Amino acid sequence: MTDSTSRSTTTVSEAGTPGIEPPALEVDHISAAYGPYRALFDVTFAVPARSITALLGSNGAGKSTVARVVSGLLPSTHGAIRLSGHDVTGRPAFKIARAGMAHVPEGRGIFANLTVEENLVMAFRQRAGRRQVPESLDRAYQAFPVLGERRKQAGGTLSGGQQRLLSLAKVLVVPPHLLVADELSLGLAPVVIEAVYRGLREINQAGTALLVVEQQVDRALDLATDAVILEHGTVAFAGPAHLALAAMEEVLASRGGRPPR
Ligand SMILES: Nc1ncnc2c1ncn2[C@@H]1O[C@H](COP(=O)(O)OP(=O)(O)O)[C@@H](O)[C@H]1O
Ligand SMILES: [Mg+2]
Fold first, then answer.
1. Model confidence over 94-142: pLDDT tens digits?
2. pLDDT at 12
3. Looking at ligand 1, which residue's alpha carbon is closest to its atom 1?
4. Highest mean pLDDT of the ranges 15-29, 72-86, 166-180
């Protein structure tokens, strides 16, 4: 892929004065649809710079759809998306990625037939250029030693947890302004989830804001400072994480459902 030079690349915000840094992400009255099926209705929330926001909600609530719209994989039918104050509405995914957003999609997000190292090299080359590759590999293996031990192994033969770690390691090279991680813990053993969440914390401490999509609330709220609860494609709650559990119970009670584990 060649880089057609900067016709309209987004300038990365220079946080002029600390304290008035614009939010890493603003989702502004977004609606979205799959063909005739409307999945999001007037969704509004923000992810403060360098913070961690949990995006919660039952299965089918629209969490992954938000992740797709934010990363440019699904166009919105209405509303605006801003990254660090810059309007990226309607931009193709690769431009949004270049503007500082990384998306770890639901599932794997890795190449099963390539080795761990080939997966990393490919991602690092794309995001940082060939010269950065060796140093980036060192950093990835330092952050996730298990990937170093298995660097010759095909991605598809890793355990579920190791595959998630690999998908996280791919974004480490150039710390993004915003990382959207969709259901990283899905189907993993608790001890593995622990490692994945440690990885998320490290990424956040390096300055990246996180939007953590989860169906399991407890762990996400433990990590997050802020929370958004989606219900049937609308925002049922947006506020501090410590108030989200009560809000979640209210949402579930009002629809007569049982809380997820
Ligand atoms: N590719 C698709 N085509 C049509 N409908 C979809 C598609 N993906 C998701 N949906 C529907 O959109 C709604 C929201 O889905 P999704 O965002 O995946 O929910 P969540 O991630 O919260 O489980 C659901 O009703 C789902 O069935
Ligand atoms: Mg989902």
1. 899 888 999 888 876 789 999 999 999 998 888 778 888 999 999 889 8
2. 41
3. 34
4. 72-86
- Contact between 192 and 98 (Cβ < 8 Å): no
∠ Cα 65 69 73 (to 5°): 100
Nearest residue to 66 (alpha-carbon basis) of 22, 105, 24, 109:
105
Which domains does the chain show, CATH number per domain?
A: 37-109+175-254 (3.40.50.300)
Atom 5 of ligand 1, nearest CA residue: 34
pLDDT value, residue 7: 37
CB of residue 57 inside a 6 A radius of ligand 1: yes
Task: Give the residue among 232, 259, 258 at the shortest CA–CA distance from 245.
Answer: 259
Alpha carbon 228 to chain centroid, angstroms: 14
Contact by Cβ (8 Å): 21, 15: yes
pTM: 0.86
Rounded to the nearest whole angstrom, what is the distance from the C-alpha of residue 128 to the centroid of ligand 2? 29
